[in-house]
Amino acid sequence: xxxxxxxxxxxxxxxxxxxxxxxxxxxxxxxxxxxxxxxxxxxxxxxxxxxxxxxxxxxxxxxxxxxxxxxxxxxxxxxxxxxxxxxxxxxxxxxxxxxxxxxxxxxxxxxxxxxxxxxxxxxxxxxxxxxxxxxxxxxxxxxxxxxxxxxxxxxxxxxxxxxxxxxx
Length: 168
What we know:
Strand order of the largest sheet: 2-1-5-4-3-6-7
Helix content: 25-40%
Number of domains: 1
Number of strands: 7
Largest sheet: 7 strands, mixed
CATH superfamily: Glutaredoxin
CATH topology: Glutaredoxin
Strand content: 15-25%
Number of helices: 5
Shape: globular
């Protein structure tokens, strides 16, 4: 089982090692969605138009997702107090809301935390589900997909990518 986890982690590292921001003219509008946050409020992706969105698809059941959270916290710290970026965490395939909320609290996952209740074949899953988590996206201030394979937290160049989009 340890070998499978190592191979999976290596595959994710390779997948996100070569991610680049798309030129403006090649960006398509990111599909809007509305989901429930930890307090039961409805939140839409379009609520963040005018800000850069770093979106993390994750699961409280996913070991690599949980392992990435401390690096994600360090990334958020680099942008603390800045209004131009939103860290959006979308939990997928969750079977237990209490476990999801406990993971958010335990790992100090600050930002906007949503839970997807979408089933396979839904518009959200068709647009964003890559078949594995964690998966990261960068969405520009106009709501366009700037990087559908954004760098993982802790990866060199990610803060610069976010700042470049903030400065567009």
